[in-house]
Amino acid sequence: MITETGKVVAVKGDHAWVQTIRLSACNSCSARKGCGQRALAAATSGRANQVLVRNSVNAAVGDEVTLGIDEKALLGASVLAYALPLVLMVVATVAGHRLSGGANLWAMAGAVIGLAGGFMVGRGLQSRSDDAYEPRVLRVNRIPSGAVR
């Protein structure tokens, strides 16, 4: 389970808006000079993100909560969003190239059709999985009385 801590900023029915702050470990990483993730983290460092999550623990506004998502769900979502469209694009490109006798125009058309089809198939598969790919509020982090927040 991958977890993140955040603060509930609004409650809407059985869902809650949770604000998290992205923290980066780039400053302590030995590969920071040649890593593209560092550039991405630098562009968004310290920025707050708000996520709508199912509020299964009845957290209230102002509560500090722990969010979680299953590793398998995250991997599955990555496959649906990235790998499936790319694989279908390559397959359709090769098919367009071979069926046309080597014409590049049909290979390019196959690439576009395969990529669009991959996104549509991935979206359809994701919508049938209900909320398997959504993070959840796992628990409310109780702060001991007398502790400074």
Automatic annotation (TrEMBL):
Keywords: Membrane, Transmembrane, Transmembrane helix. Pfam families: RseC_MucC (PF04246). This is SoxR reducing system RseC family protein. The keyword DNA-binding does not apply. It comes from the Bacteria. It comes from Marinobacter salinisoli. The chain crosses the membrane at residues 73-97, 103-121. InterPro entries: RseC, SigmaE_reg_RseC_MucC. The keyword Coiled coil does not apply.
